[in-house]
Amino acid sequence: MDTPHGFHITFGRIVPDRYDSHLERRLSSMKGQYSDEQAFARLAQNGDPVLYEVYELARPAVHGELLSGISIVHPGKVGNEYYMTKGHFHQLLETAEVYYCLAGRGRMVTETPEGDWAVEELAAGKVLYVPPRWAHRSVNTSENEDLVTLFVYPAEAGHDYKTIETRGFRKLILDLGKGPEVVDNPAWGG
Fold first, then answer.
1. Are 44 and 36 in contact (CB under 8 A)?
2. Above 70 in pLDDT, residue 155?
3. Domains, the chain, ranges and CATH?
4. Both ends of the chain: CA-CA distance in Å?
5. What is the spatial distance between Cα 140 and Cα 146, in angstroms, rounded to a whole number?
6. pTM here?
7. Alpha helices for the chain (secondary structure H)
8. DSSP strand E in the chain: where?
């Protein structure tokens, strides 16, 4: 029989004291996701930096279970586009997710298969509900601080990264000299 459990977060470099899996997503795994391919190639030649990390508490992928963890998007840019997560729909499209921003500043880029989109600000203390049918991607808009979020979603939801890898998101978050700006993605392949 399972019992209630959790993890502690130490502020500063926020990493949970207990987790079942740790993912490091490097630049090389984000090929085709950034709008400036030349900037991507230049950065890739100088190493393969870690763009973000995910720490998860595993749960059985069955109805009624909730999966939770911490996502840490590091600061940096590829050209004028901020470091970001790969972004995903859920395999079970009718699945919601909740994010609680613990540290940093950023944006959550979201969209539906039908063409609706929204970009929400993330800042420490903000809770964000991502409704069913909405793909989502976290973007760190800070110059020198990690964007750290706690996430919770139904464990059976799964991830559909392929759709985003194929067509991207409709909107990009770029630094065009005045801080973060939402712009159309000229390469979006809806």
1. no
2. yes
3. 21-184 (2.60.120.10)
4. 46
5. 7
6. 0.92
7. 37-45, 162-167
8. 21-26, 50-57, 66-73, 77-78, 81-82, 97-103, 105-111, 117-123, 127-130, 135-140, 147-154, 171-175, 180-184
Q: What is the mean pLDDT of the chain?
A: 91
CA dist 30 → 18, 98, 118, 133, 188 (Å): 27, 24, 22, 23, 16
Q: Which tokens belong to 132?
A: 């069913």
The candidate with the shortest Cα–Cα distance to 110, out of 147, 137, 139, 150, is 137
Give the containing element (helix H, strand E) for 74. Answer: none
Number of C-beta neighbours around residue 103 at 10 A: 20
| Contact (Cβ atoms closer than 8 angstroms) between residue 107 and residue 122 | yes
Question: Which pLDDT score is estimated for 11?
Answer: 55
Give 190: exposed, middle or buried? Use CB within 10 Å, 0-12, 13-18, 19+: exposed
Look at residues 104, 189, 95, 89 and name the one whose alpha carbon lies nearest to residue 137.
89
Q: How confident is the model at residue 1 (pLDDT cuts 50, 70, 90)?
A: very low
